[in-house]
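User: Fold this; C-alpha cells only.

Assistant: Input:
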Amino acid sequence: MEPISHFFHSGRLKLQFWDYGSDDKPVLVLVHGGLDHARSWDWTARELSETYHVYAYDLRGHGNSAHAPGAMYSLAEHIQDLAALVDIVAPRGEGPNVRLVGHSLGGMIVLHYSGLFPERVSHAVSIEGIGFAMGHRLLGPAPERMRRWIDASRNVDARTPRAYPSLDAAVARMKEANPRLSDDVARHLTLHGTNWNADGSMTWKFDNQLRAVSPYGHSMEDTVQIFERIACPVLFFWGLKSFAPVPTGDPRYDAVREKRLVIAPEAGHWVHHDELEMFLRETRTFLT
C-alpha cells in the first residue's frame, strides 16, 4: 500500500510528509539525508509500521517540499522543521513519546533535536549522521567557511541543473552514486526523486543550492554541548565501506552518554539500503 501524502508548514515553507500508519501505535519519524527524499525509507517504513505509526518527510529543498528563498539550508532550519512536524504527529504528553531515525544529514538533525528537546525523544537512531569528519574544511575557520559558501552558492546559481534524457539514464546515475543498490531499488528512488521536463528529460527534485553546504551549524564545540544533553539511548550504524570514518574518538560521538555502535561490514554510507535485514533487526530490538 502507498503511504498517505500530507503537507505541513514550517518557516513559511510548505513541506511534504508521508503517513505509513498505523493509528494508536507509538510514533516513529524517519529523516532522510542530503540530496535524498522521504520515499527512500519505504522498505524500512513498511516493516516498522507493523509496530509503530511511521512518518517520513521531505526536508526543505528536497523531494516534494518547497525550495527555500535564500537557500541557506542551515542545520538550525532543518531542526526547526523537524520540531514542527513532531508537534503535529506526536502532541506533547507525559514523558518522551517519539522515536527518531535519521540517515547522514538526517542523523545530524535527529541528534541535534534530541539534545535540544530531550523531553520529547524516547529513542534515537543515527545512520552515519554525526557531522562532518574531524579535520573537514566545514569545521575550519569562520572566514574560510563563509567565503567558500558564498563562492559555491554563486557558482551554483550560474549552473543549469543537469537533465537526463530518459528514466534509464537517471537510474544509471543513481547506481553510480551507490553501486550497491539493486536495479529495483535504484529505479524506485529515481522515480520518486525526479521531475519530468517539457521535453521529456528528467531532473532531480532537490534544490541545486543544497550543494553549497551552509557554513553554519557545524561547530565542534556547539555540537558537543548539544549532544551532551541527549537523554535517550542512541543507536549508531556505520558501514565499513563508507567514505565516512567510524566515529570512535570523535568528541561528538563521545558526548552522547547512552549509546551503542553497530558496524555493518558490507555496507557503504547507506546502511539501511545495503544491509536492510540487519538494519531492521538491530533497530527493532533497540526501539523496543
